[in-house]
Each structure stands twice: as structure tokens, then as C-alpha cells.
Specification:
By secondary structure, the chain is an alpha+beta fold. The protein has helices spanning 2-29, 33-55, 58-89, 95-101, 139-156, 179-184, 192-210; strands at 108-115, 121-127, 130-136, 162-167. A 4-stranded mixed β-sheet has the order 1-2-3-4, with helices on both faces. A hairpin with a 5-residue loop joins strand 1 (108-115) and strand 2 (121-127). Helix 1 packs across helix 3 and helix 2 packs antiparallel against helix 3 (58-89). The longest helix has 32 residues, at 58-89. It is elongated. The termini are far apart.
Length: 234
């Protein structure tokens, strides 16, 4: 029991420190966060307290109002913190990969499955909706990356639907903050075992590409085979 209490006491300061850090980061992008949270808490508590006086139970409604005010403040803080985080990540390289890493259970993500010299990149996620290719970079350039990657997917997993998203704010693009919700809204067409089989096939493809044998043909001039241990001393 003593060990559990000690662990809980040690975890609480960590949570409070994390909340404080999140608040500071949010306040950099949202200067009114403090006023908004105070207004939400005070208004919620005030409304329930007023109702309590009207019906003759100010204490009960006051306690309920305090709890609901805390809950409402936490919800508003979470949403505004998330919005501020997305605003700071917008346009940063690898932002889409960070979003995919936090998409939730049921998805397997692989960052940077395709990339060009201009650092335009395509990430891959596999779930019950099939395969989702998420591209970030110049819209004109990433279309070629997406086309090549979709062609590769069709050769390996032709029976699995492949979707593609381009992260951005232009026409036909998906904003960074909407990537997760857009993917979760895709129709689920695969079962759990099918998702596992698809991941295994894609993983095998990666192993084959990394373990590709040397090409056949004459050895280039100047290239020497490494000496084996059995040839020493001759």
C-alpha cells in the first residue's frame, strides 16, 4: 500500500507539471486562453448557483455547478490546446507523421515510405479502412509520389482499397487538424485478420527491398571480393 501511495504522489506532480507546460505552450499561440477558461468556469458555476437559489437548494446546485464548471473548463482547455498545437505544427516537416502516430488504436503507421529530393514525403497508415497514403509538401510534386506509391500498393495488395490525402489548406487538400477525423470517417471494409495480413505483406515488401540481392552480370572493374578466412596464409 505504501509503495502505491508513493507512486501516486510521484505521478501527481508530473501531471501538474505537464498541464502547466501545456498551458504555457497554448498561451503562446492563444493569448486569451486564461480569460476564456476563467469565463467558462465562472459562468457555468454562476448559472447553476443561481438555479440553486431559485429552487431553494443553493448548496447542492453549487457543488454540482463547481464540478461541471471544472469539467467544462477542462474540455475547452483541451480543444484550444489542440488547436494551438496544430497551428504551431502547420507547415512544419513531419507534422503529418506526428498526427498519424496519435491517430489511435487499430492503425499501423509507417512514416516516410516515399520521399524526393525536395523533402516532399508520403506516410502510410493501415487500418480497417484499408491503406491511407498521407502526403505533405508541394501539391504538384507529391501527386507524382502518391501515384507511384499507389501503383506499388496495387501490385502487392490489389484487394485492399488505397486512399490518399494531401495535407494543406488549398483546394482538394486536408488541413492538418482534420487529418485524423478524415481518416476515422473512412468506411471500414477490412476485418482485423485482413488488416494483420496486409501489414505482414507490406512488411515483407520492406524486407525484400532492404535485402535485395546483388545484380547479376560482370563485376565492375576495380571491385574486389573480400578475402575469406580460409584463404589466409597462402
Amino acid at each position: 500500500m505504501a509503495r502505491k501511495e508513493t507512486a501516486a504522489d510521484a505521478a501527481n506532480p508530473g501531471r501538474l507539471k505537464q498541464i502547466a507546460l501545456t498551458y504555457k505552450m497554448t498561451r503562446r499561440a492563444d493569448k486569451k486562453i486564461g480569460l476564456v477558461l476563467a469565463a467558462v468556469g465562472i459562468v457555468t458555476f454562476g448559472v447553476f448557483l443561481a438555479i440553486g437559489f431559485l429552487i431553494g437548494h443553493p448548496i447542492y446546485l453549487g457543488i454540482l455547478g463547481f464540478l461541471l464548471a471544472f469539467l467544462a473548463t477542462a474540455i475547452v482547455f483541451g480543444r484550444r490546446a489542440e488547436r494551438a498545437a496544430f497551428g504551431q505544427m502547420e507547415g512544419q516537416p513531419g507534422a503529418a507523421a506526428a498526427v498519424l502516430d496519435n491517430i489511435g488504436r487499430g492503425w499501423t503507421t509507417t512514416p516516410a515510405v516515399a520521399m524526393n529530393r525536395s523533402q516532399d514525403v508520403v506516410h502510410r497508415a493501415v487500418g480497417k479502412a484499408g491503406i491511407v497514403l498521407v502526403a505533405e509538401g508541394n501539391p504538384n510534386r507529391v501527386k507524382g509520389l502518391l501515384a507511384a506509391e499507389k501503383k506499388k500498393m496495387n501490385r502487392i495488395v490489389a484487394d485492399v482499397p488505397v486512399h490518399d490525402l494531401i495535407v494543406g489548406t488549398g483546394e482538394g487538400q486536408v488541413e492538418l487538424k482534420k487529418v485524423r477525423t478524415t481518416m476515422l470517417k473512412l468506411p471500414r471494409v477490412l476485418t482485423g485478420p485482413q488488416v494483420t495480413a496486409t501489414n505482414d505483406r507490406l512488411r515483407a515488401l520492406g524486407d525484400l527491398m532492404s535485402n535485395m540481392p546483388l545484380p547479376k552480370g560482370p563485376m565492375p572493374k576495380g571491385m574486389r571480393l573480400p578475402k575469406s578466412g580460409g584463404q589466409r596464409g597462402r
